[in-house]
Amino acid sequence: MKTALNVPLLLRQLVDCLVLTMAYVMAQETLSFFQHTTSHHPASIPVWCISMTTWVATGLYLHLYDDFRSRPFSYEFMAIIKTLLLHICILTFTLFYFFKFFYAPRAFIGIYSGYIFIGMMVSKILIKKLFLRIRMRGYNMKNILIVGAGETAMNFHNTIATNDHFGYQCVGFVDNTPNQTLNGKYLGPLSSLGHILENHEIDDVVLAIPESSREETESVIVASEKAAKRVKIIASCYQHCTSTVSMSLFGAFPVITIRSSPLDHSGNQQFKRFFDICFTLFLLITFSWLFILIALLVKISSPGPVIYKQERWGLKNKKLTIYKFRTMKINSEWNSDGTYRLTTRNDPRVTWMGKFLRHTSLDELPQFFNVLKGDMSFVGPRPHVTPLHLELQKTVQHYMLRHLVKPGITGWAQVNGCRGENERLDWQQQRINLDIWYIENYSCWLDFQIIFQTIVNLIKGDKNAF
Prior knowledge:
Elements: H1 2-35, H2 44-61, H3 73-98, H4 105-136, E1 142-147, H5 151-161, E2 168-174, E3 186-188, H6 193-199, E4 204-207, H7 214-226, E5 230-233, E6 246-250, E7 253-257, H8 266-286, H9 288-301, E8 307-313, E9 319-325, H10 352-360, H11 368-373, E10 377-379, H12 386-395, E11 408-410, H13 412-415, H14 425-440, H15 444-460
Parallel strand pairs: 1-2, 1-4, 2-3, 4-5, 10-11
Antiparallel strand pairs: 6-7, 8-9
Helix pairs in contact: 1-2, 1-4, 2-3, 3-4
């Protein structure tokens, strides 16, 4: 049993050592080629041994060799990045303090790290595909016993049955209530669990009974641990969880966060705020002349103030006042009966200058000051006016989740064509879904992509801007 479990781990570690060896030799040869020196160095073999030992040790510490069979490759990718960064730090310290005469350590580490990254990415993808083929043929499978035969248990069984690449197979079900629909996989009641564990080849016990059955839960855990089996518990709130679910310890209590975001971390928040300030100041200084020109044209186009202030809703559902260049005739946003009047295509209230500003999104420029104040971010979900905000709370699913982060001047929904006001419920739901996707998948690179696409849309004009 142990051999079956350790062979994949040993294979992955051996492949990593082979990749490190090839990367090491290629880095030496590359450096000697450009510097016209010999690739042999007295410290080469000790440094190579230290590198391999360090990689395997840090990989084990940072969960690089965890079983990723039921998780997307992005999890393994992050483990590779973390292991590589720590490996570089340790190797740099080693070379500079213990191998001071090692030739060109800075250049070598840079080249070596580049080869490691490429080699690890290729090898991990190939190994993942190899194990997938092996599991599809019935090898390297894990046998699980499901305790429970209710809805949760059946949904879990259907998940592993329809995803062969996960590498799990169900030995059977244990439940106090016999279920005739289990096609012969019902093995007995909870009282016979110990006997079942002794007579079947089982790797893990999956507990899928209601949380209210605490005595039964405890008896299952005790019996499983006596048989040296791992116990995995399906949380009763699983149906509410999303792909970004996370778990943490609050004292001694395991706490499940059903939705998490990279912006929950203070480091990402600080970086985003730093970028907002620097980028906004750069744009304000660079295009200060444009602000003056637009202000003059707005003033000429129709009587009234240049800047239009409007109440909207932002972070934590708090009110904020946003600034825009005025694009409509004054006092024209409300109907005679007191209801809010949405903007429509070819709206007669929009001035000739306003049409240009809206088409190019230049009417949003004064919101740079909202960003500097901290009310908004450069990239984020667009805030809605109060009447629409109050309406969408009641009609659009998950609408309020967009208020977990600061609103933005531009956003993922806007660059994907969901902009402007629209009364269609399905259109609004699509827009909110895109906003939530951005919140749960935030990265600085995604922000750069959105900003770039916004600039492209600004230059060519957006057909949905009116």
